[in-house]
Write a structure and sequence with these properties.
Layout: H1 9-26, H2 31-40, E1 45-50, E2 57-66, E3 72-79, E4 86-92, E5 100-107, E6 116-119, E7 124-127, E8 132-134, E9 141-144, H3 145-157, H4 160-166, H5 168-185, H6 193-201, E10 210-216, E11 222-223, E12 234-239, H7 243-248, H8 254-268, E13 291-297, E14 304-313, E15 319-326, E16 333-339, E17 347-354, H9 357-360, E18 363-366, E19 371-374, E20 379-381, E21 389-392, H10 393-407, H11 417-434, E22 440-446, E23 452-453, E24 465-470, H12 474-480, H13 490-505
Antiparallel strand pairs: 1-2, 2-3, 3-4, 5-10, 5-12, 6-9, 6-11, 7-8, 7-10, 13-14, 14-15, 15-16, 17-22, 17-24, 18-21, 18-23, 19-20, 19-22
Helix pairs in contact: 3-5, 4-5, 10-11
C-alpha cells in the first residue's frame, strides 16, 4: 500500500503540529480563512455515526496510518457529544499472514508494563498465573501491557457488587483475580485522588511476575521487545493454521470444508507403487532420484495442495529430506528441512568466521532445533526460530533482517528514545553484516547435530570453520523428549500392558 494512503505515525504527528501552528496564525485573520484551512488539511476523516448508547448522532474519526517496521493499520475513535460515550479500536489493514504467531513476554518488573502491543480481533490472550484467558474480540487494540491489564480490571470489576449477591462463588474467584491485578498495577481502591498522587511519587512495592501470551492465527498481533530479538523476556513462535482457524478467519467456507477434507482423504489413500514392497515384505529404501507427493490442505487459504518431498545427500554430512509446498490459489509457499538420519548421540556447535562476501555464498542447513548467534551485533535466535532452512548464509541473514524490520515498533507513546536509537544501531549493524561490510562470527548450535555449514576446502579442514561436538544436558534431552524414549524392548512392555488391561476388563458373572 502506498505511503500516501497510509502515512507513518510520525509524519501524521508532524502534520498535526504544523496544522496547530497554522491555525494559530490564521486566528488573527478572518474566520472564513481558518475554516477553509481546516477543511483542506485534515489529519483524520470524520464520519457521522449512530451512538449505540443514547441513539443520538455521534462522530467517528478514522486515521489511516502505518506503524514503522510493523504494518498498516486503521485507528478508529468514536465520541458522542450527547451522552459522552467513547470507543476506540484498531483494525489491521494488511494481509493475513501465512502462519499464525504466538508471542510470549515474561513481565518481571514495572518497566515491562510500558511495552506496546497490538491485539488483532482474532488474537487470544493468556495469563497463566492469573488463570485468565481473553478470547478473540470484535475489535482490535493498540495499547501497552499496563493498558491491557487496566481494561481487564475495569471489565471484571464493573459488575462485582451485583455478582456478589447473585453468584457468590463467581464473585470470590473474580475477586482473587482482581487482587492479583491490583498488586501488579500498584492500585489501592481505598485511596482518594490526592492519596493516589502521593502513592505514585513513592516507590511502589515489588511487582509479582507473570507471563503474557498472544496467540493470533492471523499473525497480525505483536508485543514489543527491547533492543533486539535476543531479549531474554521475549519470544516468538510461528505455527501453521488449522482448518478451524481458517474457517474462523473467513478464509474457508464452513460448508466447503467437509467436502475438501473428504477429497484430501481420498487422494491420500493411493495404491502402493509397483516395486515399492520387496519380496520379503519390507519397504524399498527411498532413492535420491524419487520425488514423493503428499496431498494436503493449504494453511493459508484452506484449498487442496500438494507437498513435494525429496531426499538429498549433502556431501560430507548426511541425508536430509526437503519438503516444498506451493499453493496455486493464494500463492502461499513454504520450504522445510528434516533430518533423514538417526538421532545423534551428541550435540554439535559450528563456528564460522566470515571475512568476505565469498563466505556468504556457503550453503547452510539450519535445522528446526538449532539456535543461531552473531556475538558482534548481539543477535541471538533461540532454538526453533525460523524453523528448518536449507539456504545460503546470505539467504538466512536476509530472512532475519526481513523478520526484524517487519515486526518491530519504532514509535509510540511508550517508546523510549534510547531504545529506538539502540534498535536503529542494531539494524544498521545487521545490514552491514549481511552485506559482508565487516568481519563477524556466526555460531550454529544444534543439540541434535542436524545442522551444517559448507566446508569450502572439503575434504581438507577449513581454516575459518570450527566444529565442536558436546554432550547434551539433561534439560536439553528433556526438551527434545529423549529422556523417556525407548527403542529396545518396548514390544515386551506393550504385550505386558495389553495383558494387564485384558485382566481388568474381565468381569465375573455370578452363576444362577
Amino acid at each position: 500500500m502506498s505511503n500516501a494512503l497510509f502515512p507513518s505515525i510520525g509524519s501524521v504527528a508532524d502534520t498535526a503540529d504544523k496544522l496547530e501552528s497554522k491555525d494559530a496564525v490564521l486566528e488573527k485573520g478572518t474566520e472564513g480563512e481558518a475554516g477553509a484551512s481546516q477543511n483542506e488539511d485534515k489529519v483524520v476523516d470524520e464520519i457521522d455515526s449512530l451512538c449505540m448508547e443514547c441513539r443520538e448522532q455521534g462522530v467517528t474519526r478514522l486515521l489511516l496510518t502505518s506503524i514503522p517496521f510493523f504494518q498498516e493499520v486503521i485507528v478508529m475513535s468514536f465520541r458522542c457529544e450527547h451522552c459522552g460515550f467513547t470507543n476506540n479500536e484498531i483494525q489491521s489493514a494488511g494481509a493475513v499472514r501465512p502462519e499464525g504467531t504466538i508471542y510470549t513476554l515474561r513481565v518481571l518488573n514495572r518497566k515491562d508494563l510500558n511495552r506496546q502491543l497490538v491485539r488483532s480481533p482474532s488474537c487470544e490472550i493468556l495469563i497463566p498465573q492469573l488463570d485468565l484467558t481473553l478470547p478473540p474480540t470484535s475489535r482490535g487494540q493498540l495499547t501497552t501491557v499496563e493498558g491491557l491489564l487496566r481494561d481487564v480490571k475495569s471489565d471484571l470489576g464493573g459488575d462485582q457488587p451485583l455478582r456478589k449477591i447473585q453468584d457468590p462463588d463467581g464473585w470470590t474467584k473474580i475477586e482473587a483475580i482482581l487482587d492479583k491485578l491490583k498488586a501488579i498495577l500498584g492500585d489501592n481502591d481505598d485511596e482518594d485522588d490526592e492519596d493516589a498522587e502521593k502513592t505514585e511519587k513513592k516507590e511502589l512495592p515489588p511487582m509479582p511476575s507473570f507471563t503474557l501470551k498472544l496467540d493470533d492465527p492471523a499473525g497480525n498481533s505483536f508485543i514489543e521487545f527491547v533492543d533486539s530479538m535476543a531479549d531474554p523476556k521475549w519470544n516468538l513462535r510461528t505455527y501453521p493454521r488449522t482448518l478451524e482457524h481458517n474457517i474462523a478467519l473467513g478464509l474457508v467456507s464452513a460448508d466447503d470444508a467437509a467436502a475438501r477434507m473428504a477429497g484430501a482423504r481420498q487422494a491420500a489413500v493411493a495404491e502402493t507403487p509397483e516395486g515399492a514392497v520387496m519380496a520379503d515384505g519390507s519397504v524399498r529404501p527411498i532413492t535420491d532420484d524419487e520425488i514423493f507427493v503428499f496431498p494436503g490442505t493449504c494453511s493459508s487459504c484452506g484449498h487442496p495442495i500438494e507437498t513435494n518431498m525429496k531426499k538429498v545427500n549433502i556431501p560430507y554430512f548426511k541425508d536430509i529430506l526437503i519438503m516444498s509446498t506451493n499453493c496455486d490459489r493464494c500463492g502461499y509457499r513454504d520450504n522445510e528441512v528434516k533430518s533423514g538420519s538417526a538421532i545423534s548421540a551428541q550435540g554439535k556447535r559450528i563456528t564460522l568466521k566470515v571475512e568476505d562476501r565469498e563466505d556468504l555464498s556457503r550453503d547452510i542447513l539450519k535445522s528446526e532445533t538449532a539456535g543461531l548467534t552473531i556475538p558482534e551485533i548481539d543477535l541471538v535466535l533461540n532454538h526453533g526460530t525460523l524453523g528448518g532452512r536449507f539456504t545460503t548464509l546470505e539467504g538466512i541473514l536476509d530472512q532475519v533482517y526481513e523478520e526484524l524490520s517487519d515486526k518491530v515498533f519504532a514509535s509510540g507513546d511508550s517508546s523510549i528514545k534510547e531504545d529506538k536509537t539502540k534498535f536503529e544501531v542494531f539494524l544498521t549493524s545487521l545490514k552491514a553484516v549481511k552485506n559482508a561490510e565487516r568481519p563477524f562470527t556466526i555460531i550454529l548450535d544444534d543439540p541434535l547435530a542436524n545442522s551444517y555449514i559448507q566446508n569450502l576446502y572439503a575434504p581438507d579442514p577449513d581454516p575459518g570453520l570450527e566444529i565442536e561436538m558436546y554432550d547434551r544436558t539433561f534439560d536439553q534431552n528433556e526438551e527434545l523428549g529423549l529422556n523417556d524414549i525407548k527403542v529396545e524392548g518396548y514390544e515386551a512392555d506393550a504385550e505386558e500392558k495389553t495383558g494387564e488391561e485384558a485382566k481388568e476388563e474381565k468381569v465375573d458373572v455370578p452363576q444362577p
